[in-house]
C-alpha cells in the first residue's frame, strides 16, 4: 500500500523539526535515522525499529493515520520525554 500523500513528521525537543515529506516511507526513514543512535532503552529501541522500518511499517502507519488521525508516540531519553509525531498534510498541502 503506497500512500501518495504528503506527510509531516517531527520529534520534539529539537531532535527533528517538523518536516514535510512527499511520501510516507521517506518520513519513516527520516524518523528512524533521527532515533537509531539515541540512547533508548532496549525494548523501546526495538519497538521503534520495527514500527518505523519493519516489513509492514508503511502499511501499519498509513492505516493508523487513515483511521485514527495524527500519531504522537512518547519516547524516553535521558534528558526527558519527547514525542514522535506524524500526520498527513491537510488537503491543499497546508500542515
Write a short abstract of this structure.
With 95 residues, this protein is an alpha+beta fold.
Write the layout of secondary structure elements.
Layout: E1 7-11, E2 16-21, H1 24-35, H2 42-53, H3 57-68, E3 71-77, E4 80-88
Helix pairs in contact: 1-2, 2-3
Give an overview of the whole structure.
By secondary structure, this protein is of the alpha+beta class. It is built from three helices and four strands; from the N terminus they run ββαααββ. Strands 2-1-4-3 form a four-stranded antiparallel beta sheet. The mean pLDDT is 92.
What is the domain tally? Answer: 1
Strand content: 25-35%
The separation of the N and C termini measures: 23 Å
Specify the oligomeric state. Answer: single chain
| Continuous helix count | 3
Helix-strand sequence: EEHHHEE
Query: Average pLDDT across residues?
Result: 92
Radius of gyration: 13 Å
| Structural class by helix and strand composition | alpha+beta
Keywords:
single chain; 95 residues; alpha+beta; four-stranded antiparallel β-sheet; 3 helices; 38% helix; 28% strand; globular
